[in-house]
Amino acid sequence: MRTLTLLIAVVTLSFGGCEWFKGTLKPKPVHGSAIPEQTPETIVNYLNHQSAAIQSIEFDSVNVSAASGPLLQQMVTLEGDLYCAKPRDFRLRAGLKVSSSDEVDIGSNDKYFWMFAKRVQEPNYVFCSYDDFATGKAQLPIPFDTDWVLQALGMTTYDPSAKYTIETRQSDREYWLISEGTTPQGMPVKKITVVAADARGANAPWVKKHVVMDGKGKTIATAEIVRAKNVTAGTDPQTGRPTVVQIPTELILTFQGSDNQKMKLNLTLGRETINAPTDERKHNYLFTKPTIPGSNPVNLADYRFSPTARGQAPSRSRR
Question: Distance between terminal CA atoms of the chain?
């Protein structure tokens, strides 16, 4: 594994979908006929309906198979768990099946995010405050936006007042919701959310893929939802009926880094809990920056990465 590629690729992406367009559409299998045009507002309302229903999500069973390098030749398989709660609480811990210690520990709270990978080049444990990240004091070797985590899990609120365009892809029978923005480092990006137009099967996702591109149209990251399932997430306050959302159970994540480095991850997620009761002790344990024996945490606001002859590897320069 290269230094921070696996760390950031894992933390930026994972995925989710939901109940279909609430109150507007109930798709049915259609053979041969054209799919109807939809407005951006319809799809945004659907995505926000899911986001409102999921306040937290836990997966007690996470299997990660990863490949990295220009030819995706370096392989590793890890097992662990994942926790996420609004607005910025996130924790992914994973290790080898034969070992009791974590190989990867990635997390965030309302003040900091951190990334640890046991077997990568130094520094193998980095952290940063969101304030320093937002003002550009912290540099990462690849484009990164912490809000992508929540979007990947179907927990992001899409701004209804933002400018969106929609493309109807008749041949693929799907809609592309497209918006533009910038990363905290000021890099312009285009985000595409791909939504299915037809009902297909019990495990088929409604939100099929998220894509992030840079300003030149080069793909930075994608996440394809291979399988999903419907679960109950509380009760709709307006109707009194159970709210059904769709969560991922199998994902394929790809990432294009600098120096032709690539990352591909297959995630299988299981034993989920949606909107677990608040447990302050558990919350503090999961979302406090951990002390990891044998590591030397490095503040990204005081650190600079520089390329080596083999590509983007960290230097030990300090500011």
Answer: 27
